[in-house]
Amino acid sequence: MNHAxxxxxxxxxxxxxxxxxxxxxxxxxxxxCVDDERLSLDExxxxxxxxxxxxxxxxxxxxxxxxxxxxxxxxxxxxxxGVYDRDIASFNPDEHFQVERRxxxxxxxxxxxxxxxxxxx
Length: 121
Known about the structure:
Elements: H1 3-6, H2 12-33, H3 36-39, H4 41-63, H5 70-91, H6 95-120
């Protein structure tokens, strides 16, 4: 018996639960992305948007959940990095932090994008 047959997400109900969680993450990301006030770094941008992007990538990679299309990921990335680049200096003037945080954001989107591209292409 292989491990995949007995893991916590091997049954249909558990797989459906993962799909619901992923759909909720996508909905959260979309809701925040279209609301400029919520996307702000001091609102939901850093507290919900980016954590949701990372959790979505994790579910897609670890459990084979269908990722969003690459064009959607790219749209999220461009929108958020635009907000980040425009506003970060007013929230954290430490230049080292600004550069390192942006690298983490870019890396998170690259991760999700690679999953989306391999799934959809």
